[in-house]
Design brief:
Residues 125-152 form a coiled coil. With 208 residues, this protein is an alpha+beta fold. The protein contains five helices and six strands, in the order ββαααββαββα. The strands form two sheets. A four-stranded antiparallel β-sheet has the order 1-2-4-3. It has a two-stranded antiparallel sheet with strand order 5-6.
């Protein structure tokens, strides 16, 4: 298999790949076997249909299409490996030249474009210096962070005293229009003073 690499940009190349009939033959054989296993011809078991009868049933063009589709990824990967190309993303392939349908002679010519990692020279960095500003943490910063951690990971305990701001209360709420109940919720955990529930709830709880 012959491959040439055309650089389209610093981040994209085109692979021009020529596949000989001998290199395509394994894919041709696989195509015959796969299609033979899917067709029914009286007197032959599936997968045992001779190539000549497969040609008559589906046509050589279908065999060639199947073979190229089956072998395309392998040809591409082989070219990438041989040319040591560091690809990025999915390739875009075009078939430039097909082999002859009548006898599968002639090369299969592919043009495949793909994004690649750019090549660049690493600048000297051993003499670079960095200045990192000192981080100053005040006592208030520490206290605020500790309060945040307590609120996130702390365990609630029951106390016997009037509720105050910052306490958590477990509420059962019922919403009514007149005497008709329209909604309800039970076991709601609410922090007094947070203002996250309906207006007036903090004042009502503060009196309990």
């Amino acid at each position: 298999m012959k491959t040439t690499v055309e650089k389209l940009s610093p981040t994209r190349v085109k692979l021009n790949i020529s596949v000989t009939p001998e290199e395509l033959k394994p894919s041709i054989d696989h195509a015959y076997g796969h299609i033979a296993s899917q067709i029914n011809i009286p007197g032959f078991r599936k997968g045992k249909v001779p190539p000549q009868l497969v040609d008559q049933r589906v046509g050589r063009e279908e065999i060639l299409n199947h073979a190229v589709s089956d072998g395309l990824d392998g040809f591409y990967r082989q070219a990438v490996t041989e040319e040591e190309i560091r690809v990025l993303g999915r390739p875009e392939a075009d078939i430039v030249t097909w082999p002859e349908v009548k006898d599968f002679s002639g090369d299969l010519v592919l043009a495949i474009e793909v994004d690649v990692r750019p090549e660049f020279d690493m600048p000297a960095y051993d003499e670079l210096t960095l200045t990192v500003e000192e981080v100053k943490v005040s006592a208030d910063d520490v206290k605020d962070e500790l309060d945040t951690l307590r609120a996130r990971f702390g365990t609630l305990v029951t106390v016997e005293r009037p509720a105050t701001k910052g306490d958590f209360a477990q509420l059962d709420l019922v919403a009514k229009i007149g005497e008709t109940e329209v909604d309800s919720a039970t076991s709601i955990s609410y922090e007094l003073g947070s203002g996250e529930l309906i207006e007036g709830i903090d004042e009502a709880l503060d009196s309990l």
